[in-house]
Sequence to fold (348 residues):
Amino acid sequence: MMIRPSARLLLWLCIATGLAVDVISNQGPVSKVLREWSQRPKVVAIVNQTRITETSLAERLRERIWRRGEDWSRLSDSERHAARAAVLNDRIDEVLLVAASPAAPDAANLHSALDELHHFQLMLGWEAGRFERALRSQGGTESDFIQSIRQQLQRGTWLHECKMPGDENEPDADAWIASHPGVRDVPNRYHAAHIFLSGFEKDKADRAEEMAAVANDLNTGKETFAALAARHSEDERTKHRGGDLGWFTVSRMPADFMAAVQSLRPGLTSGVVRTRLGWHLIRLIETTGAAKAPDENILPEVAALLDQVRRQAAVTRSLAALREHARIHIDDMALVKLAPAPFPFAEP
Fold:
């Protein structure tokens, strides 16, 4: 049976009208398909059959920028390009390492992961439900977290086994120390304590007044520094030992924290200090000046350093071999648009 032109036109008009109503109302099956399509994670790269999404790279880029103390809005185009390339290459290496490591984590690996999870929760000292809420805010679950730890343990085992045989031309620790006299230089060291309030409490955007009240109790002699640390500090590693951070050097602490430490004289306590991590009251206990370390003190560290250098060389060679045989596709247009994911809570 032939459909007359006028009937065919009417049919197409009905179809077009139905589609228009579907899209405009945002309720029909076509709208649902379009929504699902638009919400699919954008793929920036594919390594063999593993997709690397824009979301995962944006979170890694956010962490990189934060750790380096950089401001994305102030980076040049070349610096942004380098940062994007760095997080992508790190993720590609990770995918290749996961594929090269044992495919099925054993029971011991699971027990180790659960131990790590338990230690992590105890260290943070979070009340019931806070850990789960934090995971949800990052779009993850406890199962995801455990799986991530297991994968890290797998990669750690694989990397530990990537050790090249010694080269007869490689220097031993004594020879290396002789050729690097600066290694004996011990920098200034600081011994300090702190009381800490986290800056990542979603419902407490500004805790300066809260910390100021703690400082007032200290300054008026209401309680000692140690007692206040035990009562208020959210650094679970130090709160029950008077907030004592032990000895550290400039390279061991964030720059904003160290700036506050270096502004103090031994025995003095800072005012309220805001860092990227939160709010602190810092007490400088003592310092030592730069010195020369005897060889017997640094020989074990140098031997470990040389071992790590050999291991890293082996890892680099292994990754190069894995990349050579991998199928890697990168969407350059998607990569050039990559930006850091927003922080789940407000930055200082």
